Structures are given as structure tokens and as C-alpha cells.
């Protein structure tokens, strides 16, 4: 059968012809510098030259078992390819490239992230020397087993016990109830032969709270489960079904004393406990992963944006003016309003992720020399940014899908897979509401400290009870960000007042907290977004000194759009606290509409500059050449239902129905 394929590529040619900035320069900025762009491209080239890393058949057509095996095959191939070519798996993670090839839940991802990070961050020198080389060379393969059937959020409520037996110098690991079963850890079901396990430490009958233990789960030769351990896979999930998320139970399973991670807290041979410098140091791997997730979320959002924006430039639908040719759907203002604020969000998240990474590196260096004072701020920033980044990436990815109409619902658009993968990010590594409440706790504490005249750390210094008055004109970027800051200050002040009022009227502080928690979550969200706006404005103004005017103008427009959009979203609060008036809001709304039209002109070039190649986008709708319809058609031919003209189902069910006398 021959198919008539409309010629689409001219649209993208025309779009690209309108580019007024140096794409390569913007690519370098997004990568963090020309050297990092060059390194990413070297990794990409190497991966593209490894055909084993690519699927002939979509995982959608494979059985659960084959899906897992296929992804494991590619994951192991990826690790060996990287190693052979002198790269680390971290290179593939930080550039995104490796993760995109393993598109459906890579069974080695927990090993190369949380398992290795725990070994590096929680081991004493002897443990590091013993475990790190084994893990780095994949002689042992592990995961991070913390969550249980009964508890994920409330780590202090975990039920798995690790009871020290000083006669044998061993810990006895036990799962006393069904709810103590470890549940969810990626790669726990079938892949891992080790796990770092969070369990309640018991010494002489006393509980010392959650601590981390290195536990071997499977024999290193036969891969069979060791006695005293029950392990398996938890079954299908919304997405990432090529991973083997697992369950784990211990039946009085013994491990040596030296298998407790002892960098921060220790147990001596005679069963004495040595306290850590800060009680939450054992949560370090979670904090580090949250920092990585901010990058990860921005990358996934960028893939969805490239797909949806290119498609919107290729797709023609309806008549804008009766009788005129059908316009590109990107010309509709409503389509621009769907997509372009999320494009601005991607840039905002990318700059904020970088700023957060610097805070993380600075705090980690401080911890190395015993300085704990930056830990609360890192916890608040990483919690808030992880929550905003994943919330926005999920929302943005779904909007991208909707913006592609029916074809966005096709698996071959890759939007469903990007969506389901990033959707898990709202829940894992700290459920977002819970993380926002941690941020709120920090905000209220800081606000109260300020009322007592204390100096506040940098990220909350704008909450000062008597802030210096802003000199920036309201409609400047700085002026609007100051207005947003005033809005957050008002919200936090209001939350504090309500909390106090409830306590004064006889509620316990905890009951008052719960009664204000909707408002507190809004404070945390608003604070984090204020921080993101600040980072975006700072980054663009710093870059202004070094980049060409075309690139600077694009960044300035994206930053402006992000701020305007945020002001409109918070209009109610800003009006209530008097930071803006109705007249200003009207002009901000009008400016946003103008800006959408301006940014639309170069939108395709901007997403081109994100520089993600077709093999990593994996989308029929988002490919560079815009040959959308041919690709969709070809992908459909791969459906197993198309292997024969008449399916078995016809003979088995349909024909009998048609022949029946109903
Ligand atoms: C690469 C990308 C690929 C991406 C690929 C990534 C793959 C990831 C796969 C998924 C993996 C997982 O999900 S692994 C499992 C992840 N699980 C979680 O994240 C669990 C979330 N829960 C928690 O983190 C915690 O239990 C939390 C909610 C914070 C509550 O802890 P507690 O009850 O112990 O603490 P609270 O009583 O609330 O608070 C007591 C004080 O401790 C402080 N505190 C709490 N946590 C702190 C912390 N981490 N650091 C510093 N301080 C902390 C609080 O601010 C309080 O300070 P004061 O106010 O000063 O008293
Ligand atoms: C795809 C995926 C992969 C995962 N991988 C791992 C892994 O590798 N290792 C691992 O250990 N775990 C893993 N997890 C588990 C994950 O970390 C937990 O699911 C997560 O921490 C949330 O905990 P929960 O499931 O107990 O949710 P719950 O805490 O039960 O949350 C349910 C609801 O209760 C609310 N809630 C809970 N506590 C509070 C509170 N204090 N205040 C207000 N509201 C509250 C939440 O906001 C939410 O709306 C994974 C989960 C998923 C989905």
C-alpha cells in the first residue's frame, strides 16, 4: 500500500531560518561550558556507534520478563561501553545521554546512583577501601533499600530491626511484621546481590533509630537468595516497568558488625554507641539524590518540550482566518501559552539546579571539616527544588502531550514514557508535599529567628521582618522579583500569625501545624519559586557580560516570561499584600502575550539549542527533520497485530459472535 506523505520539513527549515542567535553558544551555556558540550558529544558519538544499545522492537511489545532482560542487556552494555572508552557511568548520568537510551527503568540505575553514593558518603575508610572498588567494577551490584510496605515518608517509623549480638559481633536483621517488608527499591527484585538497608539499630535492648547497613542478598556465584532472606519483584507499575522494583524480608539474618556504615555513627565491639555530629547525616544519600533529581527533571522536561515545539511547527490545523491556509498550530496564542512558559521553566530549573549543586558541594566540603551549620539550608533548598522541579516537569510534560493532540497519546511520540518516568519523581526520594512541609518548617523557624533579631542564612535573608525597601522599579525584572519576595514574606508572616493564634487559643503546636499545613505548603512552594526566579535573574545578568547579544536577548526574554508568568500565578497574594496593583497586573498580562509572540519566532531554534539528538529523543513527533507522518506510519507497521491480515482473535471470538443467533 502506498501512502501519501505530506512534505513537512519546509516548516522547520523556515523556522530555523529565523534564528537570530548563535545556537552553539546557547548549547554551551546549557551544558555548563564548551568543554562539557564537547564531552557530551563525544559520549553521544560513542553510544550511537554501539548498535546493541538500541531497540529494534518497542518494549511495549515485549513480555514483562523480556522487557526486563532487554533493558538489563542494554544497561550492562552501556556500562561496559563507557568503561572501555574511558568514561564513567557518572558521565552518562550527568549528560543525560545514558539514561535516555535506557528509556524504561534501567535496572542498574540504583547501583550507579544511591548504592555507590551511600558507599562513598557513609563508609569509614576501611569500608570505603573494601566496598568501593567492588561496586565500581560491578563485582557486587546493589540498591538502596529503605522504604517498607508500611512506611516510606516517616523514616523514623521503619520497622526492620538490626539488633547487635556482642557475643558473635554480628547484627541480626529482622522483619517483624508484614509492614516491615522492604517495598519499592529499584533493582531489588532480581538484579541486586547487595543492598544498603535502613534499619532500626538496637543495642542492649535500646533503639537508636534508623541506621544503614550493607547486606549481601544473593550468592555471588549462583545469584541464589541467601538463607534468611526473601526477595522478589513487586509487579507492574504506572511506568518504568523494565526495572525490577522489589520486596525484601529478613528472618533473623546475621551480618558482621563491620557491615554497619560507620562514617558518622559507630558501634563498638562491646556494643557501645558513638553518636554522629548531626542526627540526620545518615539521610545524606537522599539529599544528594534530590540534588540530582532537579537536573534529571529539567532534562526530561526539555525532551518533552523539543518534541512538542517541533511538532507544533510542523502540524497545521484549522483556519485562523477563514479561507486562509491552515496555520502551524504554534501560531495559535493558546498553543504558545501552553508551551512557552514551560520552556522558560526548563531554563529556570537548569540554572537553579546548578546553583543548588554549588550549595551541595560547599556544604559537603564543610561537613568534611566538621561544619554542620549549612546542613539545614541545604536540606530546605534541596527539598524545595526537588519538589518544584518534579511537579513542574510532570505538569509540563503532560501539557506537551496534550499540546500534540491525539498523536501525543501514541507511545511512539515517547511523551507517555517520559511522563510516567518523571511522574514517579513526585513520590520517590521524599513525597513532594512532605518535602514542602520540611521547607515550611525551616521558613517558620527562620521567620521567628528574624523577629528575635538573628541574622538569616542567604536563601531566606529576604524574610527579614523589616526588610530594606526595594529601589528597583516595579516593572523591572528585579522589581518584580522583589514583589514576589514581598508576597512570600507576607505569606510566611500570615502562616506564623495563624499558627500562633491557634496555639494561643489552646491548640498544641502539632495540631496547629496540621491546621495550617495547606497554607504552609503554599509558603514553601512560593519561597522555592522565589529562589528560582532569583537564580534565573542572577544567571542571566552575569551571562550578559560574556555572551553575544542574540543569546543574551533570548535568555532575557525567557527569564522575563518566567517572572511575568509567576507574578500572574500569584496575583491573589500580591494584591492582598499590596506588592502590585490591578493596573500593574493588567500591563503584566499584556506584556506576557506580546512576549509569547516574540519568543514563538525563535522557539524551534531555542529547542534545537538544547541539542538532544533523535536517537535520544526517541519520538516520531520530535525528530529533527519533522517528518512526522511518515514516522508515525512506519512505527504503526511494527505492531504485532499487523503481522497477519486476520488475527487468531477473529477465529476464536469474532467469527463465533457473528455466526451466533442473537
Ligand atoms: C541522578 C538522578 C537520577 C534519578 C534517579 C533517582 C532514582 C531514585 C529512586 C528512588 C529512591 C527512593 O525513593 S529512596 C527512599 C527515599 N525516601 C525518602 O526520601 C523519605 C522521605 N522522608 C524523609 O526524608 C524524612 O523522614 C523526613 C520527611 C525529612 C522526616 O524526617 P524526621 O521525622 O526524622 O525529621 P523531622 O522530625 O521532620 O525533623 C527533625 C529535624 O531534622 C531535620 N532534617 C530532616 N531531614 C534532614 C536532612 N536530610 N538533612 C538535614 N536535616 C534534616 C528537619 O529539618 C528538622 O530540623 P529542625 O526543624 O531544626 O528540628
Ligand atoms: C518508582 C518508585 C521508585 C522507588 N524507589 C525506591 C528505592 O529505590 N528505594 C526506596 O527505599 N524507596 C523507593 N521508593 C519509595 C519512595 O521513596 C516512597 O514511596 C516515598 O518516599 C513516599 O512514601 P510512601 O509511599 O510511604 O507515601 P506516604 O508517605 O504514605 O504518602 C501518601 C500520602 O500521605 C501524605 N503524607 C505522608 N506523610 C505526611 C505528613 N507528614 N504530612 C502530610 N502529608 C503526609 C503524602 O503527602 C501523600 O499524599 C520508590 C517509589 C517509587 C514510586
TrEMBL record:
Keywords: ATP-binding, FAD, Fatty acid metabolism, Flavoprotein, Lipid metabolism, Nucleotide-binding, Oxidoreductase, Peroxisome. Pfam families: ACOX, ACOX_C_alpha1, Acyl-CoA_ox_N. It is found in: Peroxisome. One of its GO terms (biological process) is lipid homeostasis. GO terms for molecular function: acyl-CoA oxidase activity; ATP binding; FAD binding; fatty acid binding. Residues 22-141 form the Acyl-coenzyme A oxidase N-terminal domain. Its cofactor is FAD. Residues 480-659 form the Acyl-CoA oxidase C-terminal domain. FAD binds at residues 147, 186. The active site is at residue 429. The keyword Oxidoreductase applies. Residues 283-444 form the Acyl-CoA oxidase C-alpha1 domain. InterPro entries: ACOX_C_alpha1 (IPR055060), Acyl-CoA_ox_N (IPR029320), Acyl-CoA_Oxase/DH_mid-dom_sf (IPR046373), Acyl-CoA_oxidase (IPR012258), Acyl-CoA_oxidase_C (IPR002655), AcylCo_DH-like_C (IPR036250), AcylCoA_DH/ox_N_sf (IPR037069), AcylCoA_DH/oxidase_NM_dom_sf (IPR009100). One of its GO terms (cellular component) is peroxisome. Pathway: Lipid metabolism; peroxisomal fatty acid beta-oxidation. Belongs to the acyl-CoA oxidase family. This is Acyl-coenzyme A oxidase. It comes from Petrolisthes manimaculis.
Amino acid at each position: 500500500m502506498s501512502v501519501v506523505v505530506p512534505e513537512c520539513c519546509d516548516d522547520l527549515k523556515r523556522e530555523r531560518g529565523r534564528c537570530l542567535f548563535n545556537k552553539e553558544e546557547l548549547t554551551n551555556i546549557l551544558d555548563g561550558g564548551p568543554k562539557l558540550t564537547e564531552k557530551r558529544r563525544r559520549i553521544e558519538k560513542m553510544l550511537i556507534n554501539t548498535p546493541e544499545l538500541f531497540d529494534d522492537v518497542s518494549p511495549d511489545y515485549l513480555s514483562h520478563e523480556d522487557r526486563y532482560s532487554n533493558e538489563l542487556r542494554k544497561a550492562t552494555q552501556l556500562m561496559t561501553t563507557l568503561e572501555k572508552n574511558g568514561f564513567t557511568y557518572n558521565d552518562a548520568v550527568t549528560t543525560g545521554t545514558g539514561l535516555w537510551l535506557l528509556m524504561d527503568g534501567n535496572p542498574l540505575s540504583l547501583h550507579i546512583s544511591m548504592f555507590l553514593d551511600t558507599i562513598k558518603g557513609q563508609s569509614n575508610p576501611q569500608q570505603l577501601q573494601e566496598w568501593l572498588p567492588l561496586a565500581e567494577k560491578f563485582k557486587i551490584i546493589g540498591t538502596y533499600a529503605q522504604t517498607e510496605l508500611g512506611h516510606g515518608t516517616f523514616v523514623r517509623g521503619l520497622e526492620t530491626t538490626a539488633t547487635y549480638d556482642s557475643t558473635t559481633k554480628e547484627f541480626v536483621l529482622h522483619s517483624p511484621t508484614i509492614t516491615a517488608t522492604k517495598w519499592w527499591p529499584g533493582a531489588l527484585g532480581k538484579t541486586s546481590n547487595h543492598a544498603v538497608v535502613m534499619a532500626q539499630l538496637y543495642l542492649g535492648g535500646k533503639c537508636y533509630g534508623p541506621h544503614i547497613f550493607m547486606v549481601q542478598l544473593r550468592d555471588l556465584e549462583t545469584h541464589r537468595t541467601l538463607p534468611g532472606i526473601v526477595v522478589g519483584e513487586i509487579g507492574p507499575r504506572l511506568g518504568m516497568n523494565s526495572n525490577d522494583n522489589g520486596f525484601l524480608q529478613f528472618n533473623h539474618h546475621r551480618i558482621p558488625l563491620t557491615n554497619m556504615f560507620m562514617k558518622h555513627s559507630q558501634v563498638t565491639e562491646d556494643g557501645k554507641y558513638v553518636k554522629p555530629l548531626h542526627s540526620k547525616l545518615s539521610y545524606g544519600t537522599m539529599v544528594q539524590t534530590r540534588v540530582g533529581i532537579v537536573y534529571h527533571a529539567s532534562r526530561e522536561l526539555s525532551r518533552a518540550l523539543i518534541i512538542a515545539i517541533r511538532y507544533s511547527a510542523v502540524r497545521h490545523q484549522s483556519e485562523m482566518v477563514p479561507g486562509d491556509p491552515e496555520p502551524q498550530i504554534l501560531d495559535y496564542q493558546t498553543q504558545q501559552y501552553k508551551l512557552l512558559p514551560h520552556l522558560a521553566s526548563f531554563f529556570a530549573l537548569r540554572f537553579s539546579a546548578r546553583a543548588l549543586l554549588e550549595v551541595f558541594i560547599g556544604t559537603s566540603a564543610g561537613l568534611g571539616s566538621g561544619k554542620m551549620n549549612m546542613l539545614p539550608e541545604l536540606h530546605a533548598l534541596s527539598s524545595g527544588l526537588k519538589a518544584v522541579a518534579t511537579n513542574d516537569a510532570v505538569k509540563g510534560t503532560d501539557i506537551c502531550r496534550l499540546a500534540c493532540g491525539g498523536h501525543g497519546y501514541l507511545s511512539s511520540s515517547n511523551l507517555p514514557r517520559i511522563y510516567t518516568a518523571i511522574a514517579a519523581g513526585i513520590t520517590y526520594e521524599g513525597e513532594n508535599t512532605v518535602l514542602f512541609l520540611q521547607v515550611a518548617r525551616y521558613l517558620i523557624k527562620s521567620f521567628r529567628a528574624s523577629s528575635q533579631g538573628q541574622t538569616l542564612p542567604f536563601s531566606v535573608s529576604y524574610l527579614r521582618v523589616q526588610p530594606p525597601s526595594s529601589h528597583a522599579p516595579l516593572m523591572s525584572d528585579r522589581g518584580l522579583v522583589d514583589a514576589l519576595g514581598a508576597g512570600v514574606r507576607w505569606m510566611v508572616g500570615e502562616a506564623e500569625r495563624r499558627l500562633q493564634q491557634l496555639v494561643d487559643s489552646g491548640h498544641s503546636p502539632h495540631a496547629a501545624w496540621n491546621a495550617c499545613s495547606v497554607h504552609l505548603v503554599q509558603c514553601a512552594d512560593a519561597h522555592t519559586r522565589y529562589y528560582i526566579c532569583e537564580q534565573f535573574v542572577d544567571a542571566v545578568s552575569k551571562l550578559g557580560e560574556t555572551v553575544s547579544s542574540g543569546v543574551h536577548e533570548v535568555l532575557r526574554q525567557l527569564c522575563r516570561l518566567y517572572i511575568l508568568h509567576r507574578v500572574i500565578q500569584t496575583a491573589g497574594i500580591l494584591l492582598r499584600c499590596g506588592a502590585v496593583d490591578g493596573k500593574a497586573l493588567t500591563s503584566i498580562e499584556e506584556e506576557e502575550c506580546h512576549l509569547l509572540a516574540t519568543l514563538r519566532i525563535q522557539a524551534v531554534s531555542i529547542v534545537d539549542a538544547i541539542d538532544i539528538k533523535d536517537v535520544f529523543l526517541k519520538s516520531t513527533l520530535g525528530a529533527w527533520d519533522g517528518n512526522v507522518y511518515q514516522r508515525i506510519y512506519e512505527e504503526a507497521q511494527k505492531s504485532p497485530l499487523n503481522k497477519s491480515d486476520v488475527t487468531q482473535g477473529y477465529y476464536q471470538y469474532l467469527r463465533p459472535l457473528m455466526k451466533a443467533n442473537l
